[in-house]
Amino acid sequence: MRKLLRGAVAALFALPLFLTSSPAAQAAPAPAADPLAMTDGFYVDPDSSPAAWAAANPGDGRAAAIRDSIARTPMARWFGSWSGDIRSAVNSYAGAAQSAGKLPILVAYNMYGRDACGGHSGGGAPSPSAYASWVSEFARGVGNRPAVIVLEPDALGDYSCMSQGQIVERQNMLINALSQFRSTAPNAWVYLDGGNPGWIDASTMADRLNSSGLNLARGFSLNVSNFYRTDESSSYGNSVNQVLGQRYGYSKPFVVDTSRNGNGSNGEWCNPAGRKIGTPSQQGGGAEMLLWIKTPGESDGDCGVGSGSTAGQFLPEVAYRMVYGY
């Protein structure tokens, strides 16, 4: 994935006061129920790529470490064009988590024009209207169940090659998506992706988040598919919130992807060597939640130690090395 794919707020935030009159800063959403209180811990995906690989390769010397240190840790499942009927796919996954009494982490990753400037994870819906339909069905698949949803990693950092018209189009797609989740999935906490500390400065990111409907979301996500240390991401998130407060009169909780940040970043974002898994999914830890959003061992694209692979492909040797940090 793209450079996205390049990271302690106040306890619980009161309803924000909005000081602008832009479409993205209208009335604050009604507070949703607390999905953490409705569940008992995070859901472990039994069909994640590391779990599937370990089950299929029990005699491999790497299988036990990958199974015990990665596959058994709660992490997100990503949904996109590969998911087939999206309402059915999301309904099945959220339903399995609900049956287990656990909280699922889902990623919506099907934005029209996705990764337009990076290319490693290009694709997405064929048109803005197709994306609107897709995300509406995604929200229907969640329904009234508790869930954590990360919305469109890459989207707000990937502006460098886009025209102003394309940027506004993307912002409107995100506003609509957040509106759909707000109305159709009231027990889900949705986090609009806000890049990472090494990509876009906090001031610019605050403006982009606000213009894309952040007021309709629970908060924003940081460091998705990247490697920045949790303290670096938390500092960045606090800086974003400071700007939001100064310019727009509100702040938001944020979550940090810790799946691959155990050794921090070496400045590379695409399959760098020497990375390590980080703190397992949990509440707190310098953010509202620390979450495994990117699956350790899944490639960022044809680059680095993943040379010859495609984005999302599971690479057992990369996963194994991440367990031990070399």
Automatic annotation (TrEMBL):
Enzyme class: hydrolase
Organism superkingdom: Bacteria
Annotated signal peptide: 1-27
EC number, as in UniProt: 3.2.1.-
InterPro entries for the chain: Beta_cellobiohydrolase (IPR016288), Beta_cellobiohydrolase_sf (IPR036434), Glyco_hydro_6_CS (IPR001524)
Residues at the catalytic site: 154 (proton donor)
Keyword DNA repair in record: no
SUPFAM superfamilies documented for this protein: Glycosyl hydrolases family 6, cellulases (SSF51989)
PROSITE patterns given in the database record: GLYCOSYL_HYDROL_F6_2
Protein family membership: Belongs to the glycosyl hydrolase family 6.
Annotated PANTHER family: 1,4-BETA-D-GLUCAN CELLOBIOHYDROLASE C-RELATED, PTHR34876
Annotated protein name in UniProt: Glucanase
